[in-house]
Please model this.
Amino acid sequence: MSYFMGIDVGSRTTKGVIAYGSRAKTFHTIFSSNNYREAAEKIREGLLSRARLQAADIAYTAVTGQQLDNLSFPFHKASDTRCCARGVNSLFPEARTVIDVQGQSTQIIRVDEKGKVVNFVVSERCAAGSGRFLEIIANVLRINLEDIGPLSLKSQNPVAFTTSCAVFGESEAISRVAEGTPKEDILAGVHRALAQKISTLIDRVGFEARCAISGGGGLDMGLIKAIEQELGLELLIPQKPELVSALGAAIVAQESKP
Amino acid sequence: MTWYFAGVDIGSTMTKVVIMSDGGDICSQVIGPTGAEHRRLANRVMQEALDRAKLSFPEISYVVATGYGRLNVPFADSEITELTCHAKGVASLFPEVKTAIDIGGQDAKGLKIKSGKLIDFVMNNKCAAGTGRFLEVTAATLGLRLEDLGTISAKSTHRVKISSTCTIFAQQEIVSRLSEGVAVEDVVAGLHDAIAVRVVGMTRRLKIEPVVVLTGGVAKNTGVVKAVREKIEHEVFVPPNPLLSGAIGGAILGRDIVLGALKEGKPIPKKERALEEVTFFN
Model:
């Protein structure tokens, strides 16, 4: 068996995994810093040095996330959906529905027992359906992204947002802050709004148990709780949800090696 | 004796007051901020309109409140929806109007008008894209003043295509375009095109027929007017003060109510009113 590399170039961070079979051997995350090509090159170097491997040790690489061409190494361009499905399947073979919440988009994927995509829907045209909405509100509340989840869990009275637009939602959050509403209630309100959006997306592709979460959204316990309440189920949560697509890309690299 | 009527249009961003005589002459018109948190400034705009017309509040025979903040206006005799007031106001300015598009600070409406009456409408108040807010957010990103956008876009030679619908994503997109060295005027022209695509696309659900009139604060932006004209392929008329059509319509509807009551010998349906702050905003 040889090593395969998966790279997931996201809008905010770039994630990489070196896999041996379907198991992650090494992983690494860096900021994309708006230069996606450079991020892809840097993550590769970082992964190789962490794994103490040479470029020649990597049998093949798949790159997903941002659409890139002309990298310095041979690679397969893989779709977000396929990578995410394979990644989740390798961790949770029992998962049939995946909620993938990323920085700028959310996708719901129906997968079969082999990790093949049965059906999917992507919401990428509206910031209110993605992690971006949370980023905007966290900025209004002046809190760090990683504090969103723990704070939201403390909420007793989630705020009801009357809008489903991130721009209008930002104004609403500012008004609530001015009225003295606790931060945790505002955050829990955003989580609830996102969970409702996710629920309507699921209605479009259908649902089959069990359901897993992936992407950066899977790091947010407040969002997870809101989704579980909205859907009335318990989610399968990977240890490192943000790396699922990169792991999946490494698996796709094995499948697509020329 | 002259009778006076006032239309008060409390929008999300601006409050507009028009005082009109029974002869249909506009005695004063004032546009002022609605006020950020509690929308408490509407009464001041009303007071200023009274001052300019050299009238006192009790001299106004009837006050119609309209717009987003029309509910619970302590100085109004009645509340009429902004759609009805807009249709009335636009038809008074352009009697042949069949399609009216109003792009406000936080919403956009398409109105179908027949013989001066509203017969159908479409509206977006769910998404910032396609409203004045889109330009507000993106102008801030570009470091430009809203009122300068029209003049700036007039210089554009290679309009950029803004592919994001969402205001937030468009904001990111324009930052990328600028970093690629695209000229600011080409980006601004692209933004005007984007808002026109969105609003005209929405209005097409009504089947756009001339005469077409564009109103609302965004109609003051000549770049947007030009872009809307391109999409519609008809002449697009803009009133001299495109923000006032709702308030004008409100004043006219107030006059109709009073004159109607007088004609039938009924009492004028006035309310106990006082020129106080609009404290509760729904």
About this structure: Residues 212 and 236 of chain A are 4 Å apart (CA to CA).
